[in-house]
């Protein structure tokens, strides 16, 4: 029975899956998410003809049910609920339930059945924590919430159903990375189902020390562009902070001003060039961001207590000492 017959002129979004409703069930999809091992047991589309019933049963695993079309009812534990397009619910682990399509209207269902197990770290690392801490925290928060969901249907407000079609299309079109797409679709379903119920308090997300972060960005930009006519305003704009804030950050981090830091970077480069090249003072001034060789001479003498030429001679002698004569 096709989508047009069932829904009149309204197209059925999951028509493609009707070609091979259980295709994904044949794939052995297993992956790790945080501290959990996840194995896909079933990931398919099924259709209940009018009046069909599935008697009371339960699962030791997680089974997610979505209703993309039609209507019926479900009994979760001892509580009956009406089902219609756009609802979803979770059965298991261990929840006794009964399903039934409407007596006069068929009901379609998208089903994801997962074995989700807590793992004990990474075996080759002797049981140590595995993966990024934020991923472990997010996976744990999601699975913990799924374990505590109330046994009742809710609207699929965050479009978890769409992930079924994403996964099926990846298989159908033999897309590159099809197994990765399926894994991501499964994780998205878990997250979106958890989000559809009352959300728990947001876990503490990893955050940056913004002063340290902006200082690092500014320093890197200066290191990359010291030869240009940099100003406090130019660098502040690049790191998206006010000039006053940037000046304060440099004082806190270096004990000096922004200009003094740039001078130190340029002088460090000048010293390397003096020791290793034969460039003239005019060439060095242009190459290292000084407005003129005279200003370079002034800053160099003030900061290092010697002239550029004296520095060059001294370091050339240290690198190439004259042979002693006897």
Automatic annotation (TrEMBL):
UniProt xrefs under Pfam families: Cupin_2, HTH_18
Transcription recorded as keyword: yes
InterPro entries membership: AraC_XylS_family_regulators, Cupin_2, Homeodomain-like_sf, HTH-like, HTH_AraC, HTH_AraC-typ_CS, RmlC-like_jellyroll
Keyword Transcription: yes
Gene Ontology terms, MF aspect: DNA-binding transcription factor activity; sequence-specific DNA binding
Location of the HTH araC/xylS-type domain: 216-314
Xref: Gene3D superfamilies: Homeodomain-like, Jelly Rolls
SUPFAM superfamilies: Homeodomain-like (SSF46689), Regulatory protein AraC (SSF51215)
CDD domains assigned to the protein according to its UniProt record, in alphabetical order: cupin_RmlC-like
Keywords: Activator, Cytoplasm, DNA-binding, Transcription, Transcription regulation
Record PANTHER family: HTH-TYPE TRANSCRIPTIONAL ACTIVATOR RHAS (PTHR46796:SF13), HTH-TYPE TRANSCRIPTIONAL ACTIVATOR RHAS-RELATED (PTHR46796)
UniProt name for this protein: Transcriptional regulator, AraC family
Species in which this protein is naturally found: Paenibacillus mucilaginosus (strain KNP414)
